[in-house]
Amino acid sequence: MPGTLGLIGSGMIGTSLARLAVAAGLEVILSNSRGPQTLAALVAGLGGRARAATPAQAARAADLVVAAIPLKSFARLPAEALAGRTVLDTANYYPERDGHLPELDAGELTSSALLQRHLARSHVVKAFNTITPHQLRTLARPSGAPDRSALPIAGDDAGAKAAATRLLDMLGFDAVDLGPLAESWRSEPDTPVYVRPYLGDVPAMNVADFLAWTSRTPGVAVPAARVRELAGTAVRRPAGAARLPSEG
């Protein structure tokens, strides 16, 4: 069972995960690209179980590490410090934000497989990429709750996926294993399980309005059977055509 969770990236997803982890009794090490000093207010708000560090320090000190960064920044992850670690990848590929990556556009790799290639000595697990930050917190439920939601995971290492499943359980979610990283496209943007099931009906709006709207929406419970069903109906489309969930 993980005792210390390292977070590389302290944006909205990273912050939501940190709050859930502290509430679950985990020690949390937060980091970002701007330095530990920029995280003082966040750490103070999280309480005594949280501290700030550099990404390399967080990677070395944690039992599990979450990479909560935009895909375009994957090359900045400290590969040496992450060697031998399980790394949970929350990133999604949006060409309009990340720039076009030919291997992803052509479907030759999934975004998590690209990260795994960079972190050749780590065990990458795709996780937490299908849910918006506010719903990550509002939909968390204790194990066995009738309205508990599930989130998809994918990875090439069975032990790493087991560790990710235990973490999800501690944070309030069941896990649905989609298989190896090559199958993680089933939870990527523009697939049936991505974001919308956890929100219900989403009106058309721009990115800023979408984020504000999600912060006022409690979300919709999506049980494991439904996640499995939605992932099974996915059809692989060109990754370069993916849109932000707020874009109509």
Q: Your description of this structure?
A:
The chain is 32% helix and 14% strand. By secondary structure, it is of the alpha/beta class. The protein has a single domain (4-235), classed as 3-Layer(aba) Sandwich (Rossmann fold), CATH 3.40.50.
Supply database-style keywords.
single chain; 248 residues; alpha/beta; eight-stranded mixed β-sheet; disordered C terminus
Layout of helices and strands, plus pairs?
Elements (H helix, E strand, L loop, with lengths): L3 E5 L3 H12 L3 E5 L8 H7 L3 E3 L2 H7 L2 E4 L18 E4 L5 H4 L3 H4 L5 H8 L4 E4 L6 H6 L11 E6 L2 H14 L2 E4 L29 H8 L9 H9 L16
Parallel strand pairs: 1-2, 1-4, 2-3, 4-5, 5-6, 7-8
Antiparallel strand pairs: 6-7
**What is the average of the pLDDT values?**
93
User: What string gives the helices and strands in order?
Assistant: EHEHEHEEHHHEHEHEHH
* Largest beta-sheet details: 8 strands, mixed
CATH topology: the name is Rossmann fold
Instruction: Give the radius of gyration.
Output: 17 Å
Globally, the shape reads: globular
CATH superfamily: NAD(P)-binding Rossmann-like Domain
Number of strands: 8
Low-confidence runs of at least 5 consecutive residues: 242-248
Number of domains: 1
What is the level 1 CATH name? Alpha Beta
Distance between the termini: 41 Å
